[in-house]
């Protein structure tokens, strides 16, 4: 768990705060909750009050805290992060999160960049970057770190582009590529590029994760999954849990429930239809497991989400 550094004289932290102070006024025009901007991959999150824990999905993204503090639970791991910190994920990661510090005079503010593994791989290939694996190349697919001034300056540039519609779509893509380049060349490059997640040409845990994501409604056993991907059952369990913090079946269950929640919330399906669509054969089992994860039965949970302005079930 990260602990906030108080009274640090670190010049990088001092520089970071100066840039964060430039970012804050650039977000004042955005309302409560999560706002998608005209730049397709950039969203702004503002909260005027602390929130309770909300189960959701941490999708492939880089999320910077500009002001305030947040806590997320990834499996059994509890992570706190603060202004100048980021949380990133390379895959869809079921998680729970809540805003710890926020007020009307000093709201929680974060900026989120969505990306794909292909975008990372393209930058690495085109720039000729060599990322040296650490810890046998096996790390959690979601992690927290400290942002450096160069990355923060790129966020300033993106926010200023919002007022230049004739430039924003083209230039923002260049800024995003530069951001990926700097992340790959920086302290956390080995975490952003993990061969076991990116390499789809060989059998391994990366292909297992991709298979479950694309086939979450399909029943499977871990034994069959291991055999298909030329892995031992024990090896699959160990590597899968390191990367996702949960077992393959737990990962499948959470993806099913999150997708069912999305379907019901969007109005595309009622609870019974959503349960069937994501692979449940028993409505009662679906309702029990839904309540266990989200704290309320399906329709009561959806009603709460719809009554809460700005509440976003993503993390």
UniProtKB/TrEMBL annotation:
Domain annotation HTH araC/xylS-type: ranges: 206-304
Pfam families: AraC_N (PF06719), HTH_18 (PF12833)
Entries under InterPro entries matching the protein: Homeodomain-like_sf, HTH_AraC, Tscrpt_reg_HTH_AraC_N
Keyword entries, A-Z: Transcription, Transcription regulation
SUPFAM superfamilies: Homeodomain-like
Domain of life of the organism encoding this protein: Bacteria
GO molecular function, one term: sequence-specific DNA binding
Record carries keyword Transcription regulation: yes
PANTHER family: ARAC-FAMILY TRANSCRIPTIONAL REGULATOR (PTHR43436), TRANSCRIPTIONAL REGULATORY PROTEIN (PTHR43436:SF1)
Name this polypeptide is given: AraC family transcriptional regulator
Species the sequence originates in: Leptospira sarikeiensis
Lineage, uppermost ranks: Bacteria, Pseudomonadati, Spirochaetota, Spirochaetia, Leptospirales
């Amino acid at each position: 768990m990260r602990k906030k550094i108080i009274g640090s004289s670190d010049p990088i932290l001092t520089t970071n705060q100066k840039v964060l102070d430039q970012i804050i006024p650039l977000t004042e025009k955005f309302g409560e909750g999560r706002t998608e901007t005209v730049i397709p991959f950039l969203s702004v999150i503002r909260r005027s009050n602390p929130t309770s824990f909300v189960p959701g999905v941490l999708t492939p993204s880089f999320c910077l805290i500009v002001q305030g503090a947040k806590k997320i639970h990834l499996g059994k791991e509890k992570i706190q992060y603060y202004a100048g910190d980021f949380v990133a994920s390379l895959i869809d990661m079921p998680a729970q999160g809540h805003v710890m510090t926020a007020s009307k005079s000093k709201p929680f503010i974060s900026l989120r960049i969505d990306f794909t593994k292909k975008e990372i791989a393209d930058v690495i290939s085109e720039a000729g970057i060599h990322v040296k694996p650490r810890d046998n190349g096996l790390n959690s697919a979601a992690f927290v770190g400290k942002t450096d001034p160069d990355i923060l300056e790129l966020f300033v540039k993106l926010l200023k582009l919002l007022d230049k519609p004739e430039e924003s779509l083209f230039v923002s893509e260049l800024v995003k590529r530069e951001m990926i380049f700097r992340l790959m060349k920086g302290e956390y490059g080995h975490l952003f590029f993990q061969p076991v997640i990116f390499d789809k040409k060989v059998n391994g845990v990366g292909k297992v994760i991709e298979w479950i994501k694309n086939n979450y409604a399909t029943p499977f056993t871990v034994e069959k999954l291991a055999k298909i991907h030329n892995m031992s059952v024990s090896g699959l369990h160990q590597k899968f849990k390191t990367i996702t913090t949960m077992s393959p079946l737990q990962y499948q269950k959470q993806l099913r429930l999150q997708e069912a929640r999305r379907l019901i919330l969007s109005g595309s399906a009622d609870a019974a239809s959503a349960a069937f669509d994501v692979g449940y054969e028993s409505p009662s089992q679906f309702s029990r497991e839904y309540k266990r994860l989200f704290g309320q039965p399906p329709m009561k949970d959806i009603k709460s989400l719809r009554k809460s302005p700005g509440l976003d079930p993503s993390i």
